[in-house]
Specification:
Elements: H1 5-10, H2 14-20, H3 23-39, E1 47-49, H4 60-69, H5 78-92, E2 99-102, H6 104-116, E3 122-127, H7 132-139, E4 144-148, H8 157-162, E5 168-174, H9 186-194, E6 201-205, E7 231-236, E8 249-252, H10 255-264, H11 273-284, H12 286-309, E9 321-325, H13 330-339, E10 342-344, E11 354-358, H14 362-374, H15 376-379
Parallel strand pairs: 1-10, 3-4, 3-5, 5-6, 6-7
Antiparallel strand pairs: 2-8, 7-8, 9-11
Helix pairs in contact: 4-11, 5-11, 6-7, 6-10
Length: 382
């Protein structure tokens, strides 16, 4: 039955009804009614293994810094922004003019698409990879060329190079790659970058950087910069630092390239004082970052062990998630997991039979494997 203002007042006593005629009183009473009805039906809490999030969250020190920063919420974040830019610049040994801040690295992907692609400037990217920049470029009218990954799931750099020409404005490389968690060796990337057309920029997305540092094939382009001023590198606080919901990332490149991206994010005015303060604590807390890396490595090892027991062979992972061929179309399987309270990654065409699973806490992963063993269509593989 719909609760109208008249029926609501009619259900009250005279004195209460008179008080409820005040709009604020009516709003409060209606809100209380809604709260009471919702409290009788507690929301279901799903196990979230679908977003490549850090299930452990930020450290207590990071949360404290953000909480304390709320007292300055009525002030513009100019000071915090300058301090953050200075910290990033100092950490990576570049001037602050070579740093751009984004609302997560996704905002910077949008900025790069607007700065370097367009109707006459092509984007070359892998398939599958993180789709955001391709979607934005297409919205701008840019030709988007998607090159299938190599057989070992690395970027097929030779094939990508063949698709490039004088009309190529930007190349996007996510390394480690999302959704495959696979790695493209730095040595191969160096050769590829040396062959870039003169007007082409390359965007290296290092969102999962921290989880790949134990590989001899991986070297960050911020730790060892490329000898090319058209390489732009992105980092985010969403993964190892556990701040996905806070939305903060940064990009580093040559001044001219960063200036173009800065214009596309609305100049040098973006930033959130609480997030910036928390991120600065996280960035300088190396022991906690290394703890997050070791914890992820342990979760990854356990996932691979459980997969092997079920005769599964995930793609070797250098991230905080894994992808594996389950031998059947994934949409129906995703729904089966959802019915059991477990959220897993969405479909990633053309890998139509591959399931992406983010690593959660041990209890989350137990729930995942319990659900797996309950789904006859896939459990029968083991």
């Amino acid at each position: 039955m719909n609760l109208t203002r008249r029926s609501f007042l009619g259900s009250l006593g005279a004195g209460t009804a008179a008080a409820a005629l005040h709009p604020l009183a009516f709003a409060s009473a209606a809100a209380a009614t809604t709260a009471d009805s919702s409290s009788a039906r507690p929301a279901r809490t799903d196990v979230r293994l679908n977003g490549n999030e850090n299930a452990y969250g930020p450290t207590a020190r990071v949360k404290q810094a953000m909480q304390e920063a709320l007292s300055q919420g009525h002030r513009y974040p100019d000071d915090a922004r300058k301090e953050f830019l200075a910290l990033v610049a100092r950490t990576h040994r570049v001037p602050t003019e070579q740093v751009v801040i984004g609302c997560g690295s996704v905002e910077l992907l949008h900025a790069a698409a607007r700065a370097f692609t367009g109707p006459k400037k092509k984007l070359v990217t892998a398939s599958p990879t993180f789709e955001e920049i391709g979607k934005v470029a297409e919205g701008l009218g840019a030709p988007v060329v998607r090159v299938p990954l190599a057989k070992n799931f690395s970027h097929d750099l030779a094939a990508m190079r063949e698709k490039m020409g004088d009309d190529t404005g930007l190349v996007y490389i996510c390394n480690p790659n999302n959704p495959t968690a696979s790695l493209t060796p730095r040595a191969e990337l160096d050769v590829f970058i040396a062959q870039l057309p003169a007007q082409t920029y390359v965007l290296i997305d290092e969102a999962y950087h921290h989880f790949a540092t134990d590989s001899r094939d991986y070297v960050s382009f911020l730790d060892r910069p490329a000898l090319n001023d058209r390489v732009i590198v992105l980092r985010t606080f969403s993964k190892a630092h556990g701040l996905a919901g806070m939305r903060l990332g940064y990009g580093i490149g040559a001044r001219a390239a960063i200036e173009r991206m800065t214009q596309e994010v609305g100049g040098r005015e973006n930033g959130n004082v609480a997030v910036l303060r928390g991120a600065m604590v996280a960035m300088q807390d190396e022991p906690s970052t290394q703890l997050a890396v070791r914890r992820n490595a342990a979760d990854r090892t356990e996932f691979m062990k459980q997969a092997e027991r079920r005769k599964l062979t995930p793609i070797p992972s250098y991230a905080n998630f894994a992808m594996m061929d389950i031998g059947r179309p994934v949409p129906a399987v995703i729904e089966q997991f959802k019915k059991r309270g477990v959220l897993v990654g969405r479909p990633f065409p053309p890998f139509d039979t591959y399931l992406r699973v983010s690593f959660g806490r041990p209890e989350d992963m137990k729930a995942f494997w319990h659900a797996w063993d309950q789904i006859p269509a896939i459990a029968s593989r083991g």
